[in-house]
Design a protein that fits this description.
Layout: H1 2-32, H2 36-39, H3 41-60, H4 66-86, H5 90-119, H6 124-152, H7 155-176, H8 188-196, H9 200-219, H10 221-229, H11 237-261, H12 264-285, H13 290-312, H14 316-323
Length: 353
């Protein structure tokens, strides 16, 4: 599990970068002379690049060892953040966020599968939770500090902070991450079949909708709180802390629950129901939204752990194609046919997300 901590460092930086923009949108829009809604498109661009990058890399570079791709993906991610800090206008900003999203998407998929492979089947849920915990920790610790830094300096200083952290994680992984055998090449027909697989498609679809619900609302949390509770831009940080603290709790608890209970489908159902309630009551609470934000953060981050677990529990060709180019994950033991849909065995965009 010690080796998984190296992957967690990169995930921490991803979590900070993917979510810090939610607190910086008004500042970025003012600096670039545009509207908050247009500035918010940088989150959309980042998320779309995050979503499509891993499957593309899976097809083009399926024979490359995961360690090489992990380091390269983090390098692209760091480069994109540096370009973001230098962006003179909205067009360059959007391009730079797309570059960062590509690196983040590939790294997220690879680090998830690599963590599962390094930890082994019995501790797979804990390894996935550790990587997800890195992202949520980046949110709870980094995002409010990034917003505070932007308030006292500029939003560009915050992006330089993210770039620096990415560079540190890049060096650590380049030096300390062990080699992981590459998965065997998967034919194009098999990759396309995974998109229509009745086992894979519902899991990916539900994960996508859950991520859109959480990230979509979180992106515009500052204006939502301003309109519903009169919370000014300078007072958003405590609410970001509440959401992030919930995220850390949810991602840390979800892994052990998956490993100990094995009732992955029941966990997903309960988490989704909790997420719906928390988001639904948020506009009604206004400035008193702290409890809902904690619950929302916990459910949103916990949700991805059992979902990735379900994908990795499929046979290697289908589960890993759905996640991206991943290392060889040993197949899990079969359960009796009457058991509900915990598929087999013990993994995100945003950015993811």
């Amino acid at each position: 599990m010690r080796k998984v901590w190296l992957l967690m460092v990169g995930s921490f930086t991803l979590g900070l970068d993917a979510y810090v923009m939610a607190g910086l949108l008004p500042v970025v829009a003012d600096d670039l002379g545009t509207t908050v809604s247009l500035a918010g498109q940088m989150v959309t661009v980042f998320t779309l690049a995050y979503a499509v990058s891993a499957p593309l890399v899976a097809g083009l570079l399926s024979g490359v060892r995961p360690r090489v791709l992990i380091v390269a993906a983090l390098a692209v991610f760091t480069l994109g953040n540096g370009l973001t800090a230098l962006a003179p206008g909205l067009a360059v900003l959007l391009v730079s966020r797309a570059v960062a999203g590509v690196g983040a998407g590939v790294y997220s998929a690879l680090s998830t599968a690599a963590a599962a492979a390094l930890a082994g089947e019995e501790r797979r849920g804990r390894a996935l939770a550790l990587v997800m915990g890195g992202m949520s920790s980046g949110t709870v610790l980094g995002v409010p500090l990034g917003v505070l830094l932007a308030d006292h300096t500029s939003w560009r200083a915050t992006m330089w902070l993210v770039t620096g952290l990415g560079a540190v994680a890049l060096v650590g992984l380049a030096v300390g991450l062990p080699d992981i055998p590459a998965a065997p090449a998967v034919p194009v027909r098999a990759r396309l079949a995974a998109l229509t697989d009745r086992r894979v498609l519902p899991i990916v679809g539900v994960s996508f909708l859950g991520a859109v619900a959480s990230l979509g609302l979180y992106t515009y949390l500052a204006p939502v709180l301003a309109s519903s509770g009169g919370v000014g831009d300078g007072a958003v940080a405590p609410y970001l802390w509440a959401w992030g603290i919930g995220g850390v709790l949810g991602s840390v608890v979800a892994g052990p629950l998956v490993d100990r209970t094995g009732r992955v489908f029941a966990l997903v159902t309960g988490i989704v129901a909790t997420l719906v309630v928390a988001i639904g009551v948020l506009p009604l609470l206004g400035a008193a939204a702290f409890p809902a934000l904690v619950v929302w953060g916990a459910a949103g981050w916990a949700f991805q752990v059992p979902q990735q677990h379900r994908l990795l529990a499929l046979r290697a060709e289908r589960g890993t194609v759905a996640l991206g180019p991943v290392s060889k994950v040993p197949p899990a033991r079969r359960r009796p046919a009457r058991t509900p849909p915990r598929l087999k065995g013990a993994g995100g965009p945003p950015a993811a997300l």
